[in-house]
Specification:
The protein has 325 residues and is of the alpha/beta class. The chain is built from 8 helices and 13 strands.
Amino acid sequence: MLEKTILLVSCDNNKYNLNHLEKVDDIKHIEKIYGTKSPFYKAYSTLSIFGQKDIYILNLDDWEDIKENEDILKDLYFDYVCPLDLYLDDRYYDDFENKNLYYSQLFLKIFHSTVTTVIFTGEHASVFEDLDGFLDAEKERYKKVFPAILNLKRENIIYVLNNLKTYPYANVVLAAMLCTSNYEDYPESDKLYDVVFDIDYSDINQRMAYFKKNVLTGTTVENLVNFSDDKIKKIVSVWRIIKFFFFNKPNHERFIGRAYADYTRVKIQEELDRFLDEQVGKIIYKYRINSITPISYQPGSVDIISNFDIWPKFTTEKYNLESYL
C-alpha cells in the first residue's frame, strides 16, 4: 500500500513507456521524455511546488487501456489518482457491455476494492467568459454522470472545480494538499494564490469542491466532500482518517505463522489497543475494541478478525472497522 502517493494518468502524445507504471523523482526526466508542454510536466511541476515527493505516472495510448493495469493498480493501492485532461463526463464505447460508459465509471470500477481516491477536475475556468457559463458547464457535467455511478463506491471520487489562476489542474493541487498535510489538519496552503472566479457555496452543486479567495485567510479549498451519501464517508477530512487505518496497522508480524492460543488473542488485543491509543488526541477522539475473533477456514490455519470502533476527528459520529490477520 502506497500511502501519501499520487498517480498521474494521461494520454500523452509521446508514446514512451506506454501502459507501464513509472516512479519519477526528477522533473528533468519528465522534460526530456515528454517536453514542457505535456500534461505530465505541468502536473509534476505543480506537485513540486507543493512539496509532494512520491509521484508515479502512467502514460496510456488510450484511456480505456487503464484496464490493462487493473490488477497492479489494486495491488499497489495508491492514495490518490489524478487523471489529466480527462473530464468527468468523457465517454467510450464498452464492447463487453455494448453501450457507452463514462471513464469515471471505469476508474471507480477498477478501484472498487480499494480506498484509492480518484480526483477529477474539469476545463480550466479561464476558458469561460463568465462565472455563469463556467458553473452551467460543470453542473451539466455532474448531472449527466451522477446517475451512472450511483451503485459504485462513491467515496472514492472527488470532483474539484478548476478555478485556480496559477495552476492548470486543480485536482493535482488538491491531491498534493491532501498528501502533504497531516491527517489531523484541514488541508491548506499559502501557494494557492488567486482564483479566476469568486465562487460561493450557494453557486455550486453540493458535491463539488472549489477554491475560494477570502479576505482574511487567503485562498482555501471549500466544500471538501466526495460523492458519497454517507454522512461520515462523504467528508474528505474524515474519510482520509478512516483511510489511515487501511494504510497503517498494528505490528502483528510476530504472530504470523505461530500456533494460535488464547494467549495469542490477548497479545493481539494488547497490540491493537496500543496502536489505537497512539492515535487518540491526534486523529481520533476515542476508540472501542469490540472483539478479537479467531476463524478457521481449514485445519491448521486460523485467521484473526479484530473489530473496533473509532470516533474520528471532524465528526461526532463513530465508524466501525475490521482488521484481518
